[in-house]
Write the structure tokens for this entry.
Amino acid sequence: MDYIDPHIHMVSRTTDDYETLARMGCVAMSEPAFWAGFDRGSVESFRDYFRQLTEFEPKRAAQFGIKHYTWLCINAKEAENVSLSREVIAMIPEFLDASNVLGIGEIGLNKNTKNESTIFLEHVDLAARYNQQILIHTPHLEDKYQGTKMILDMLVSDARIERSRVLVDHVEEHTIQEVLDRGFWAGMTLYPITKCTPARAADMIERFGTERLMANSAGDWGPSKPTAIPDLIMELKRRGHSRDLIRKIVYENPCEFFSQSKNFKAPIAAP
Ligand SMILES: [Zn+2]
């Protein structure tokens, strides 16, 4: 089945992975900016990274017929360096007109610190001033519940932010309800070690329905599985769910959410 991966870090994957994803039905993907595994030293490192996301990766994906989109930010781990973060935020508008940019992300919290909150709010302000959509990273493990609450509270306190244009990723059983109830989109991240398995994602779909909900692989440089969405498709099929339900989660919902960005064009997908 043709599908879209709304959150995958292809800069850390090989060209062979692009080929495998294409064979498994991936027709489009979106790649949020994230941490490189080490803290970068200057704003110029981010300028090069944003060029990679807006120039190089779309070409690499296109070789396999996959449409590549991206989101720009300085991630929460590096937000502890407030002065560097501000330099990066000031530079981001240079890239907002690139044809594959969908918005600002993945912004959020990591350890729920004051500096992270400060830089999060400055990203939200940037998104509001430039009419950009937002993709949210919620903290992992024990910080997730508290961090998700803090993020949602900061978002709703800015009257300029339309909740239907914000995707909150890495939701789990204890955070999904509040994200959906408050009018945001939610993304379940399928991951072999932390985050959620295809079976847990299928349980959440059965419990919370298919409105404003999608799934992603987050495939990155750590232990992760870029083909996790086909695993979810198999799990949903195994449980007897309809093709329409599966297609809504893995194709129609990402299209509906991304279509709120002027740069998104729905890829042609087999029905
Ligand atoms: Zn990510």
